[in-house]
Amino acid sequence: MTTADKRPATNRRKFLAGAALAGAATIAFPQVSRAQTVTLKMQGSWGAKDVFNEMAEDYVKRVNEMAGGRLRIDYLVGGAIVHPFQVQDAVHGGQLDAAHTVTVYWYGKHKAASLFGTGPVFGFNANEGLGWIHNGGGRELFNELLTDIMKRDIVSFFAMPMPTQPLGWFKKPVRSMADLKGLKYRTVGLAADLMQAMGLAVAQLPGGEIVPAMERGVIDAFEFNNPTSDRRFGAQDVAKNYMMGSHHQATEYFEIMFNKRKFTALAKEQQAILQYAAEAVSSANEWKGMDYYSKDLQELITKDKVNVIRTPKDVFAAQIKAWDGLIEQLGKDPFMKKVMDSQKAWVKRVVYYGLFNATDYRGAYEHHFGKLAL
User: Fold this and answer.
1) Residue 264 pLDDT > 60, yes or no?
2) For residue 27, is pLDDT > 90?
3) What's the pLDDT at 24?
């Protein structure tokens, strides 16, 4: 064998030796990683049975699996440490490292919070709203609200474009706007201002308190979010009329927040995992919602014998009129006007494209499945 013939064997031996060392390092590496694990304590705003709690766990699972042992989130259900509406204070103050919630739950601190979730109806859906947050200036405006105006030590990401929230649950069917007048109704955020302007008396309650309040007569009607959440906490046991469609909360998203000091102390790749896991779970949550919500709506009809009805057109008209009044009032605050103007500029361009270009989905649906009673 010539010298040239020997070289490949020598190179192979060097390669195999190097691979063995690399393999040993790979085996040892997780032990080093575990020793350096950063653990973040996160609380949700959701009860253990709520689908939103499951969706929060979906986010935590993605972070923990992607972080390779160097970063971990320990998740707690709503109320484990603080009240579901108080997670922002707890994250800002360091009592919690993180929270999974919605901005509307701290709307009492600044009404602009509701504009980053459940604001006026300008014609955009929640997916288009997330587009505004990521690409239309919404993220920068939200950071201005948190950091410059409210002086909060928080970093937040948004996830899960939620479908339109139903008008909700009623003891009697709502046949017209007149049936809503004077009712004691549960909702949250700017939707509370909207319903009050329409002549309802509003109570703002977290999800876990709704059914007991209905049973005690504290409220006459309520909305929460979706058929799955509603069914899981027993809405069908305290009311049998479910009104679908509304302008009160046409869009919403989860806010995944972190204490800024804890977040900035993390390595850049760990910060990236927390951010990009929110983007990944946004799609996963939306797809899960499509499956769960549609199934539970059918089960409410077939198993629970709920009377599912489309909200009357005059209620939609009254809501639009009430929103007009609120928009004028809220616009007196320069920051809120800036946010709404930014949203309208995004909607005028983006929704125009969407509406002008969209095929006739309803026509195709009705061709295959029959006319919709809407």
Assistant:
1) yes
2) no
3) 43
What's the pLDDT band for 35 if we cut at 50, 70, 90? low
Task: Tell how far CA 227 is from the center of its chain.
Answer: 15
CA distance 200 to 69: 51
CB < 8 Å & 24+ apart, contacts of 204-208 = 206/45, 206/78, 206/83, 206/84, 206/85, 206/105, 207/46, 207/47, 207/50, 207/52, 207/84, 207/233, 208/47, 208/78, 208/79, 208/84, 208/233
Q: Model confidence at 374, in pLDDT bands (50, 70, 90)?
A: confident
Do the Cβ atoms of 282 and 160 come closer than 8 Å? yes
Q: Which two tokens stand for residue 149?
A: 């105006």
Give CA–CA dist 227/170, Å, rounded: 14
Sheet strands (E) in the chain: 38-44, 71-76, 98-101, 154-159, 168-170, 184-186, 201-203, 221-222, 241-244, 254-259, 307-310
Instruction: For residue 309, give Cα distances in angstroms to 5, 175, 303, 317.
Output: 83, 9, 16, 17
Under CATH, what is the fold of the domain 35-162+252-290? D-Maltodextrin-Binding Protein; domain 2 (3.40.190)
Beta bridge partners of 308: 242
Q: Where are the domains of the chain?
A: 35-162+252-290
Q: What's the sign of the alpha-carbon dihedral 326, 163, 271, 31?
A: positive
Considering the entire predicted model, what is its pTM? 0.88
b/e burial code for range 281-301 (CB count within 10 A of at least 16 → b): bbebbbebbeebbeebbeebe
The 10s digit of each residue's pLDDT in 210-250 is 999 999 999 999 999 999 999 999 999 999 999 999 999 99
